[in-house]
Amino acid sequence: MTVLALPARPRALIFDLDSTLYTDTAYARFQTEVLVARLATTRGESVAATEAALARLRAERAASGSGATSLGNLFAALGVPIEESVRWREELIEPADWLKPDARLDAALAALGRDYRLALVTNNPRSVGEKSLAALGVRSHFPLIIGLDDTMRSKPDPRPFAYAAERLGLEARDCVSVGDREDVDLVPALELGMGAILVAGVAEVYELDVILKSARG
Ligand SMILES: [Mg+2]
Fold first, then answer.
1. Could you tell me the distance, in angstroms and rounded to a whole number, from the CA of residue 54 to the centre of ligand 1?
2. Which residues contact 132 (CB under 8 A, 6 or more apart)?
3. Are residues 84 and 123 in the same domain?
4. Residue 205 needs a FRET pair 20 to 30 A away by CA distance; which of 33, 111, 136, 213 works?
5. Distance 182 CA to ligand 1 centre (A)
6. What's the structural domain count of the chain?
7. Same-domain status, 88 and 115
8. Distance from the alpha carbon of residue 123 to the mean position of ligand 1, in angstroms
9. Cα dihedral angle (190, 192, 193, 194), rounded to 10 degrees?
């Protein structure tokens, strides 16, 4: 866990979902593969050809000094509107097929929920976020879930983070973003003035309450 920035008195924690609230590389890979396969079908080409097109885009971004971006933004660059990405994800991703209740996460979020308001900001549609939290057995801890379809902007666009703060009725400086990808989950939050904590997976979320309590002294 790396605490990149922490406000003096944080009031809300804004969590990423995938590889933050659960760690399952097979599920993460499945989500990418199923969406790339759908894109290949739409483009009338092989999966390998679509993967090559995505690799070219990533290389161009790297060469121009742009940071990493989301799959949704790469798809948009290949002509798939975000609205279409939302529909594909709703159709193709069934969290309950992959995720099971996590009692340690439940306990960790219950403890955090006593000191902070908890929100989810995911690049999946809100319905997929809700189903994921339900499958993990932690839905009740999250009064606010912001999905891709709420702002039609995909992290690292800062708008989903700004919208979360607005919906919480808080200033950015009152919020801390918690996620597994620095470029996507943390840099845009930091640019808004939020705190930011990098986690390597859900095991570090189990420890977050202790880390925050010790950081606050
Ligand atoms: Mg993630």
1. 19
2. 17, 21, 22, 95, 99, 122, 124
3. no
4. 33
5. 9
6. 2
7. no
8. 9
9. -60
Which pTM was predicted? Answer: 0.95
Q: How far is the CA of 16 from the centre of ligand 1 (A)?
A: 6
Are 139 and 152 contained in the same domain?
Answer: yes
Name the residue among 79, 37, 70 with its Cα closest to residue 153. 70
What digits encode the pLDDT tens for the residues 177-202? 999 999 999 999 999 999 999 999 99
Query: What spacing in Å lies between the alpha carbon of 136 and ligand 1's midpoint?
Result: 15
Ion ligand 1: residues, CB < 5 A: 16, 18-19, 180
Do 45 and 6 reside in the same domain of the chain? no
Of the residues 48, 79, 96, the one at which a domain ends: 96
**Ligand 1: centre distance to CA 56 (Å):** 22
Q: Give phi and psi for 29, each to the nearest 5.
A: -65, -40
Range of the domain at 64: 26-96
Q: CA-CA distance, 197 to 185, in Å (whole number)?
A: 9
Q: How far is the CA of 52 from the centre of ligand 1 (A)?
A: 23
Q: Does residue 112 share a domain with residue 78?
A: no
Summarised one tens digit per residue, pLDDT across range 60-108 is 998 998 888 899 999 999 999 999 999 999 999 999 999 999 999 999 9
- 106 lies in the same domain as 186: yes
Instruction: Determine the 3-state secondary structure of 177 from DSSP.
Output: strand
